[in-house]
Write a structure and sequence with these properties.
Number of strands: 12
Number of helices: 3
Strand order of the largest sheet: 1-2-3-4-5-6-7-12
CATH topology of the largest domain: Porin
Shape: elongated
Radius of gyration: 27 Å
Distance between the termini: 73 Å
Helix content: 10-25%
Length: 282
Amino acid sequence: MFHINDFISQIFYNTLQIKNDIMRKSIFTLCLLGLFALCTTNTSQAQIHFGFDVSGGFPLNEFQAQNPNTGVGINLNAFFPFAPQVPVYIGLDFGFQGMGTRNIQKNINVNIINTSIPINFDIATSNNLINGHAILRTKIPLPLVQPYFEGLIGFKHFYTRTSIKNITSTSNIINVEELQRNSEIAGETLQQSTALSYGFGGGFHIMFGGGQFGLNLGARYLLGGQASYYTREDIRDFDVTITTDNGTSNNELGSTVGGNNIQPRTSRTDMIMANIGIVIKL
């Protein structure tokens, strides 16, 4: 006689068996990799190495839905072995990526002495990402191609930077030099937010010159906590505001850039980071 409870119990038992098999195979594979790495250290000594990479950042999940722009930047890193004959390293990696820029012109009219004066502003705005991670890496020190696997934890810091690059006017009534001198030419940070970042990665070192330098090819899957940020679409609509009191005794004209009441977006910040660069051993 068919019993539904026995049927469900059998399915549950089979599922557990499959999960246990997968776990055992994964542990067995990692043990083989570790054993192979340790065996090869008899002829290959772990060394300090430094890297310089060109990186690409690809948003995932809800971060991709809010911000589909790919980031491009650079990463610098350094790795130090636990022991001369152990191919396990602890390292630090820091990177910078541009996440979208806009160079736009804003034309506004200012009422001076009952006269409408046109003023043209060239505004540059950029969304940026600074990231830093502590890394635990294990590497198989083969003579030519050296695979590595790593775990990472750190931070992602998003910020939007804007500046007024140039100011012009067709009118002689307004003092453009005064306006430019008192404007925030050097730029200001309109938005910044920091999130936890953690994940795993892997890649290859392709070594040359007797193993002292080589090419790095790698990728990282980085989960990220919630952060607030602007996208490239958001920053095209920032406004310029003319100010008449900049702390000077003559109440000279100045200008600032504002977000035009555009609210930053908020989401988790999952990403894939792809790297290509050079590695140098000491």
